Q: What sequence folds into this?
């Protein structure tokens, strides 16, 4: 059900608020944090019925918790080879948040763009999967798939790479696995 | 007055966007925000902004249209007011842009 039916890709996003008009923005599915997906900052996972995102700025902590979670949001965007290879082995995903660029200003924004572009190039080089999401807190933080493509270009992705990283085809298996439970 | 041949004239593109904002914003504020986010590329983009209701039209040169789209995508605040400038349509003629605005406003009324 989640997979794209034809040649056209279906897009998804992860947001932090109850966003109902997502189809007007061109998304096929929007996952709401705290409802469809859950964020964990540390410790073991409690809920096994929905996809989970592990949030940390420490790569070593992530390596310890690799088997418990589906997505890994490394806030520092450090390029850790050990984490990348293990993540690839387990077929899990990094989460790259576009909101980090949108809601920072000046030098901080420039630094975030530089770190993210380095991180994304690193992921592409070692063939590690990642997804893009806005993690928007309100309506003004939501971006359409086309806009996400453009932001992807800012951090050094091609249009196709940016499109594929927000397509349901990429993460469909994970969400389908949980919907069957 | 010298009239240049059409081949010698500068080409242009119009970008139609919709403004979602908490408070009312004007053309100047948007121009300043584009300037802040474009940095050294501002002279390349050289935008001329016009408002028609909730919609805005930016005139720029064809080479800078993608840069302009990237800049609009990153803007979240205009003069400290929360805003989202959503690009809708790109065209080479103002006539088509206005037709698109009429079409979108018609849809909203329905």
A:
């Amino acid at each position: 059900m989640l997979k794209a039916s034809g040649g056209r890709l279906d897009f998804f996003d992860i947001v932090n608020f109850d966003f109902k008009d997502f189809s007007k923005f061109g998304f096929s599915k929007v996952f709401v944090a705290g409802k469809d997906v859950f964020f964990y900052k540390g410790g073991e996972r409690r809920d096994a019925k929905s996809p989970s995102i592990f949030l940390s700025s420490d790569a070593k902590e992530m390596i310890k918790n690799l088997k418990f979670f589906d997505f890994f949001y490394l806030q520092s965007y450090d390029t850790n080879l050990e984490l990348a290879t293990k993540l690839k082995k387990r077929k899990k995903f990094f989460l790259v948040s576009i909101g980090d660029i949108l809601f920072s200003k000046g030098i901080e924004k420039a630094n975030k763009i530089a770190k993210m572009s380095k991180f994304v190039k690193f992921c592409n080089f070692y063939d590690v999967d990642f997804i893009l999401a806005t993690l928007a807190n309100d309506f003004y933080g939501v971006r359409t798939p086309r806009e996400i493509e453009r932001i992807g270009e800012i951090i050094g992705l091609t249009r196709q790479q940016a499109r594929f990283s927000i397509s349901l085809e990429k993460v469909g298996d994970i969400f389908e696995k949980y919907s069957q439970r | 007055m010298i009239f240049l041949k059409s081949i010698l004239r500068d080409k242009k593109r119009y970008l139609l966007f919709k403004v979602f904002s908490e408070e009312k914003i004007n053309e100047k504020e948007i121009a300043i925000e584009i300037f802040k986010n474009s940095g050294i590329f501002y002279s390349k983009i050289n935008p001329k902004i016009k408002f028609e209701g909730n919609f805005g039209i930016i005139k720029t040169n064809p080479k800078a249209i993608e840069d302009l789209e990237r800049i609009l995508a990153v803007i979240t605040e205009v003069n400290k007011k929360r805003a989202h400038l959503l690009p809708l349509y790109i065209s080479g003629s103002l006539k088509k842009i206005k037709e698109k605005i009429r079409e979108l406003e018609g849809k909203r009324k329905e």
About this structure: Chain A has one domain: 12-180. Chain A has a mean pLDDT of 86.
